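Retro notes
What went well: the complex prediction finally ran end to end.
Inputs used:
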Amino acid sequence: MSSMFVKALQPAPLLLPSRRMVLAGAAGLTLAFFIAPRGLRAQAPAPVIAPNAFLRIGEDDTVTVLSKHLEMGQGPYTGLATLVAEELDASWDQMRAEGAPADDSLYANLAFGAQGTGGSTAMANSWTQMRMVGATARAMLVAAAAAEWGVPEGEIAVAEGVISHGDRRSGFGALADRAATMPMPEAPRLKDPSAFRLIGTDRPKLDTVAKTDGTAQFTMDIHREGMLTVLVARPPAFGATLVSFDDAAALAVPGVEMVRRIGAGVAVYARGTYAALKGRRALDVTWDTAEAERRSTAEIFADFSAAAQSGGQTVEEEGDIDAGFAAATQIIEDEIRFPYLAHAPMEPLDAVIEVKDGKAELWYGCQFPTFDRPTAAKALGLPPEDVRINVILAGGSFGRRAQGSAHIAQEIGEIAKAAGRDGAFKMLMTREDDIHGGYYRPLTVHRLRAGIDDAGNITAWTNSIANQSIMTGTPMEAMMQGGVDPTSFEGSNALPYTFGSRRIGWAQMQSPVPVLWWRSVGHTHTAFAVESFLDRVLEAAGKDPLQGRLDLLKPEATRERAVLETVGRMADWQGPLRDGRAYGVAWAKSFGSYVAQIVEVEERDGRPRATRVWCAVDCGIAINPNIIRAQMEGGIGYALSTALYSKVSLGTGGAVEQSNFHDYPMLRIHEMPAVEVEIIRSSVDPTGVGEPGVPPLGPALANAWRALTGQVTSELPFPMQSNV
Amino acid sequence: MTQFIVNGQDVTLDIDPDIPLLWALRDDLHLTGTKFGCGVAQCGACTVMLNGMPRRSCVTPLSMVEGSEVTTIEGMTGPEIEAVKAAWVAIDVPQCGWCQSGQIMSATALLQQSASAPTDAEIDAAMAGNVCRCATYVRVRAAIHDAARTLEL
């Protein structure tokens, strides 16, 4: 491997075309560019690739993009490879992708200034950077061909992975060695969008084949020589602490090798999962729940409701609220309650570590490497440079693997450290661990109040929100300005609606229950609160749900207007009721993208059944429409599952009442509506699609249900039995 | 000592006969295409063929498969699995991918048992035991129809 090399450059002005990205990227952005020399392929699949690179060209002409973003189903492997391939003029067939390891000096998310995947930023922050990687590699390959053939660079063409001049032709692999010695171009030119041949076209994801034949490698699939499987006995209530444990019976279980106390609880190390399960069951653990969350969900709701009624701190205020209500002839009020939610990715959380001779190597679906690497290193008592994290496919996340607390990295580090010897260890959670495990979407209460005058104008709008802060107590707390966590109420403020006056308040609540981002974060509840309450207000004002929204939009809200008008046309909107079925509309802007949805609902067994959903999305330039549609379809299903079923509740004494899919049910195929997606044509830089499909579905469903039955949905999920 | 056939090969395992087949396949035979999702037969991620019929391996004790034939995603052969896999790729069904082995096993079983192209209702009935948290259901349904066309059902 001695002939391998890495070239790095710091083309800050080159790579940072906008002030926004300069701010976000902070200092130290580095583009590394790596071409594997001949012979590398022969050594594959040994994982000894250059870690500090975005791109690897194999002698077999394959082009492997190292994705700085975790692939958890939302498509960044394919998306980033598309951007590189476009500018490289590669053939799509030669493209590959794999996860980049933890190294925030190379793989920072330019939206965060740290390595991490979240906020639907993967494509937005990579849009210029990854095209630049492709253009840089192309320029160096062309320079190599020019030198090899003794012809001017300007006469060389590259198309579909073939470099040519007259009758001479070469693949990338044959020129990779020489290209690697060429100077890095100072300002490689990016294509004009009119010349795009991959961007904007459908293609299946690069990881699809491996996900259909069982060969895709996830964390739980990893086996290392002598590896022990570890299950942790975890506290029975949030904030409970370990007093003591008796491991005699556990150690008597065949296959159980050791039992150790770690921060998260009591770790049982065994040969195989089944022995670990049996060993954990045999443990006798005593917990102290004095400092734990002992309140039930009903008690927490009562406390949060009182705080919401008090109004909280003002996070947005415009106009004279008192005068607005004084001018009103009708006042509508509601309180809407949202429960804690577990993410429940199909692959429960897990991690694999191998410690050998003072170095540690980890494999898992690591979503925030910037936090995880130093955390694991500290737990291991090793310097971060001796800890390598291989970021591999995650079987879903929906935010769950992106912990500011880095608790999984902490746990796996402690597990290896507590073993007291070198070796390989796999920690995994059972579904029960996952559902009981906290890091939930925050339980939230919205108090809404609106005034309407004789002419149907909304003269006043207030919304007070009470919930826990996700950022408080994490490294992200430093980003909170004025003690305000914007993720707690995002989507309730900065609305593009013309209200006579408005006030948005936020009350920060406390609980030992850990909370976390959950696919679309604050928009999971704000979109529902705003768009379902607004529907009632519009009805009271005598307005059509769709036209009423359009009339209420400020003139500058052109993209909002476009998605609403488009979805109305798609669904042939004729008002909320037609032929015994109801139609509800809602929209939301989240993570830079605009999504409007109309849901067709019928009543079945006293519950809403969504039969069809129309979805219009404006996410800027559509890089791969296939993935955008997939994310809208999936977001709709995820949101429908949430609205119909999802609730984590604490019973008397604070114990979680759900445990597995029988009492924390998921949407199933027979409940999935038909979905039609239309993508708005755009020349604006791309924005996110992983999350924005989620927010509008719940309120659109509730609006249709109210049109059909007259029932207002003031608490999610929908009640299991309705009095229709 | 449990003797059975996995993907056409004779296997003898000298382990606890109470172990769920799922963990014997994954931990002892390193056949990791079969996934753990719930452990209580609620999600279908662990679906394998037991003597040609779909079976939740997470609730199937090893002792139950003595003398039986087990087929996992890695060992599936025949026109139905080929048609299903091709349709899955063409329609780009998977997202995170964790549940997809189970989805594909159930879909293949449905097509193996279908004398004619399955209706939406038949697909729903056959696939309702397979949870997909990414909600790829629209495409699962489309891909099964596509595979049925390939098989000229």
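What we learned: The mean pLDDT of chain B is 98.
What to try next: split runs per interface for comparison.
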